[in-house]
Amino acid sequence: TQPPSSSKDGPWAQRPADRPSSELPTVSVIGGTGRMGVHLCAAWANAGYDVTMCSRSKEKAQDIVDKLLSGEGYQKKVTGENAGQGDYCVPACDAAGWKLKAGDNSAAAEADIIVLGTMYEQAWPIVETIAPEIKGKGKTILDMTNPFMKRPDGYGAGLPKDGPQAGILIHKEKLNDPTVKWCGAYKHILWTLILPTGPKNPSRPDIEVFGDEEAVNLVVEMIYRHGWRPIVRGGLEVAPDYEGGKVSFSKIWNNMKREIGQGEKLSVGW
Q: Using H for helix, E for strand and C for coil, what is the string for 91-104?
């Protein structure tokens, strides 16, 4: 089933006109060797984007990139404290024509769209190191971090009660660059459901998006191009309502109402 092309068909964002990959913005993924990062790097590369998988060690990223570009996909069992949460499971896929490369974290500054795909607690220290290279350049930052998504290894412990209750708002405040446009998305999507060719469960393809209009428009395009459907929830002011890990009865109830009334099919939902 093709996703709707405009908001007239439902709550989904209007689908932009298709354009050749040569006109697409370049993408870098901080935390690119993590589970979410690897799955999305493959999906975006398959969608025609020029993607840099970033890691503290370029060599670590290169090993994964080589496997993906060979067409064999990437599978790896997760061990230790996070075992059981889900493994790396990118299936074999024809990668001919993919523009996917490896880089260290400093290479992230070169892209038009910088994706924060690492743990919330690690994101700002990395952004801080590349801040001199990105400030004033009109970058787009896609913030996927989840400060409230508690993990067995201790990450995701939440935010101070006396400050903004969304990681993206804290990152924006710290970077303090009015030329950067910010977007939040993929907050509730499980990496195991992200295949290079689209959602593993095609009956639930919806992703919530919020943020600055210019950034949202680019991320909406990214989501459509790799086979999912974006639903825009608002600007950055709604960020606290869409952080992953913050479950409530009202959120579940509202999701159910929107699914029944408007046809939304959120990938995870809450």
A: CCCCCCCCEEEEEE
pLDDT classification of 257: cutoffs 50, 70, 90: confident
- DSSP per-residue string spanning 11-28: SSPPPPPP--GGGSPPEE
H or E stretch covering 214: helix 213-225
* DSSP codes, 167-185: HHHHHHHHH--TT-EEEEE
- Are the C-beta atoms of 127 and 170 separated by less than 8 Å? no
pTM comes to 0.92
Pairing label, strands 140-143, 194-195: unpaired
Check whether 17 has a pLDDT greater than 90. yes
Greatest distance between any 2 Cα atoms in the chain: 50
What value does the mean pLDDT take over residues 116-127?
95
Beta strand ranges found along the chain (DSSP E): 27-30, 50-55, 74-76, 88-90, 99-104, 113-116, 140-143, 181-185, 194-195, 198-199, 206-211, 229-234
Dihedral sign (CA 242, 267, 25, 130):
positive
- For residue 161, count CB atoms less than 10 angstroms from its CB and return exposed for 0-12, middle for 13-18, buried for 19 or more: exposed
Q: Each residue of 47-99: pLDDT tens digit?
A: 999 999 999 999 999 999 999 999 999 999 988 777 667 899 999 999 999 99
DSSP state of 266: B
SS3 90: strand
pLDDT in tens, 18-49: 999 999 999 999 999 999 999 999 999 999 99
State how far the Cα of 112 lies from the Cα of 138, in Å rounded to an integer: 8
